[in-house]
Design goal:
Length: 208
């Protein structure tokens, strides 16, 4: 599903958000979170602190939230997932729907290495990253339930699938970060999902 065309004002909004986000990540990666202020980020991005606060409530949010249209991106992932042909399994359909956004990690390696370093070094940023995705959980579970024909309140599968695939995403990103972004994040995600779909066999085929 193609991304809808954006007007000039909307494009400017997204560009300013991206400039502030990438600047915040760079400065925090260089100096540490406690050594960077909103004024530092604003000056480096060429805007006023007042403009900064039009986009972010805090410097922590500027580090964590990569895109101004985060909610819209989440909705597009759900729409792609629901539009995938029925013969594709729900886990594979969900991962395929994620891929366009996940490719942003590979395409913006230095930014994401800096963001993940900042989150790794600052527990408050980790908590903010988790909270940022809170509002997408219920709609995604509902979408999985709709595609699989299950009742999200009566059946465990929709919630379990989201949690499991979320774990695969986190594992792929962590492995990518540990290897300094020199391996493909998309390929790592595919590998993680293939292992899950195979029943997470132990390396070497050992059985318990």
């Amino acid at each position: 599903m193609p991304e809808p065309a954006k007007g000039l004002r909307e494009r400017k909004r997204l560009e300013t958000h991206r400039a502030l986000a990438t600047t915040a990540v760079r400065l925090v990666a260089e100096r540490g979170l406690d050594q960077v202020t909103v004024e530092d980020i604003s000056a480096a991005a060429g805007v006023s602190p007042r403009t900064f606060f039009n986009y972010f409530p805090s410097k922590e949010d500027a580090v964590v939230i990569a895109h101004a249209d985060n909610a819209e991106r989440s909705q597009r992932i759900i729409e792609k997932f629901l539009a995938t042909p029925e013969e594709v399994s729900a886990p594979r359909a969900f991962v395929d729907a994620l891929k366009e956004d996940f490719a942003h990690v590979d395409e913006n390696r230095e930014e994401w290495l800096g963001r993940m370093k900042a989150i790794h070094d600052n527990p408050t940023l980790h908590s903010r990253a988790v909270a940022m995705n809170h509002d997408t959980v219920a709609p995604t579970i509902e979408a999985i339930a709709r595609r699989t024909g299950l009742d999200p309140k009566a059946d465990l599968y929709p919630t379990l699938l989201l949690s499991t695939l979320g774990g695969a995403v986190n594992a792929a990103l962590r492995h990518w970060y540990q290897h300094d972004g020199r391996v493909s994040a998309l390929e790592l995600l595919d590998d993680a999902v293939e292992l899950l779909l195979a029943g997470l066999p132990e390396p070497g085929g050992r059985a318990r």
